[in-house]
Amino acid sequence: MDKFSRILSVVDPTAVEQPALQRAAWLAARTGARLELLTCYYNEYLSGDRLFDSRSLELARQDLLENYKSLLENLAGPLRNDGIEVSTAASWDHPVHEGIVRHAIATGAEIVFKDTRHHSALERAFLSNSDWNLIRICPAALWLVKPIDFPDKPIFVAAIDPMNEHDKPAALDDEILALCKVMESMVGADVHVFHAYDPRIAVATATANAYIPVSLPLDEIEEEMRSQHEKRFRELTDFYGIDRCKTHLLSGLAHEELPALSTELNASVVVMGAVARNRLKRLFIGATAERTLEHLPCDLLIVKPDWLPQPTKMAKKVAGFPGSAAVDAVNEAADVTLTEAAPSPR
Fold first, then answer.
1. CB neighbourhood size of 199 (10 A)
2. Which of 146, 178, 197 is the last residue of a domain?
3. pLDDT digits (tens, 9 = 90+) for 80-133
4. Residues 289, 161: one domain?
5. Is 322 a member of any domain?
6. Which pLDDT value is given to residue 289?
7. Nearest to residue 242, comparing CAs of 311, 304, 191, 166?
8. What is the pTM for the complete model shown?
9. Same domain, yes or no, for 141 and 32?
10. pLDDT higher than 90, residue 25
11. How do 190-197 and 247-251 pair as beta strands?
12. 26, 106, 211, 233: least CB-packed within 10 angstroms?
């Protein structure tokens, strides 16, 4: 990706503040991209699922969406006055996260903005809210926005895994850094790169391979591990021309070190890749990102691999309103099948 041409911002019509809209407008103004505002809504009592769908329910749905469309137009007005090309859409769809993805695919959005708030540990564990499900199935880059002040010259922290220890293909690191370089050139972002390694892994491996009690040179083991990680880390950051004073190779757990570094740098956005394959070959956010999101003091931008196919079962349920169980049955549960990762372009 060398530029942005289409940006999608999800608008919560019940919220007073719209951080995601503000962030999306900021990017659109600086890149010349077209911005679309989307409200995706569903209410089971108006859907007709519980009772026979009637003309009155259909009119109620239309009236509701027209009101939301008017709200979006009111939000779009000032942006158009600032010279941003803005369109609006109000969609009746369920589940909401699938509706957002369907719209993003249909419009060719390259990046999706959405507000994020605190979620319980139970919700995180079962990916039962829109944020986690969007991370799992949205093929476009996903920018989760927190309600914080955003500077004119933001600091982006690219979190990479050059050793590919978390079931992440090497090419995804290229996607992360390429996107950060786009932000650097187009909006003047200050780009830092982060990688953490856990020396306890090397020590545990050496201990497990020692069949008889021996005195292990722990310092040498840790130094060897750092040397291996540093070599791969430098190859990648040097390839993308990252100033070494802005590279951060740290010893420790990534989900602890990354929030700490983000706070120290006063980071605006952390950029991470979200690909890990389980035995069902579905796309999930990695465990590191999952444990990190709630603790980051800033926005999170999730990058997907460029070889990720679009979800084949995410087509629009029906032209109009999904008002019956029969219509809902047309669209099965989404399942993102992955192909083998392409080799790194380096």
1. 18
2. 146
3. 999 999 999 999 888 889 999 999 999 999 999 999 876 665 555 443 478 888
4. yes
5. no
6. 61
7. 191
8. 0.81
9. yes
10. yes
11. parallel
12. 211
Q: Tell me, yes or no, whether 250 lies in a domain.
A: yes
Q: What pLDDT score was predicted for residue 67?
A: 93
Distance CA 68, CA 14 (A): 10
Residue 342 DSSP code: P
In a domain, 202, yes or no: yes
Residue type, 133: N
Share of the chain above pLDDT 90, in %: 45
Instruction: Give me the number of domains the chain comprises.
Output: 2
CATH number of the domain bearing residue 239: 3.40.50.12370
Residues 283, 217 share a domain: yes
H helix or E strand, kind and range, residue 89:
strand 86-92
Range of the domain at 37: 1-146
In a domain, 339, yes or no: no
Measured distance CA(101)–CA(95) in Å, rounded: 10
Residue 33 and residue 6 in contact, taking contact as beta carbons nearer than 8 Å: yes
Per-residue pLDDT, averaged over 32-46, amounts to 88
The confidence score (pLDDT) of residue 285 equals 54
Q: What is the DSSP letter of 305?
A: -
Is the domain of 190 the same as that of 253?
yes
